[in-house]
Design brief:
- The chain has a single domain (3-135), classed as Rossmann fold, CATH 3.40.50.720.
- Helix content is 41%, strand content 12%.
- It contains five helices and three strands.
- It has helices at 3-13, 40-58, 76-79, 84-94, 105-115; strands spanning 22-27, 64-70, 126-129.
- It has a three-stranded parallel sheet, with helices on both faces.
Length: 138
């Protein structure tokens, strides 16, 4: 998912979204320049900014916009990134809760929670679902 692929459906579905609606996108931490992630990191930084602007623009209509920043997951998109295996091994070594790149359930649960009414006052947020990796220093 990149900047335009969040904005375009948000705008297109705006007439269908009711008060208290929610939009959730997926990102990969764009606060640093990851080895092997190359220019996709730039696209994710744009996505994260787009989410904040959508939160600003849609909030007055009661529509929330948030992102889930998952750790590396085995997906079709990940197969296209040379060196992605290096990211996977870093998570296994440094995530305090551990990380299983084959288990998509924690990420899916976070998306479902953000889509639900359990977060009625949360928008413009990036929820990390990465075993705690993002909080660790070198």
């Amino acid at each position: 998912m990149s900047a335009y692929s969040l904005k375009s459906p948000a705008v297109a579905t705006r007439p269908l979204l009711s008060e208290g609606g929610s939009i959730v996108g997926l990102t990969f931490d764009a606060t640093v320049a990851w080895p092997a992630y190359d220019w996709m990191g730039v696209a994710k930084a744009g996505l994260e900014s787009t989410s904040r602007y959508l939160a600003r623009d849609l909030g007055p209509s009661g529509i929330r916009c948030n992102l889930v920043s998952a750790g590396p997951l085995k997906t079709l998109a990940a197969k296209a990134i040379p060196g992605f295996e290096d990211l996977e091994s870093a998570w296994k070594d440094r995530a305090p809760l551990g990380w299983d790149e084959s288990n998509h359930e924690p990420t899916a649960k976070a998306v479902c929670a953000l889509l639900s009414d359990f977060f009625p006052a949360t928008t413009g947020e990036i929820v990390h679902v990465d075993g705690g990796f993002h909080a660790m220093g070198l």
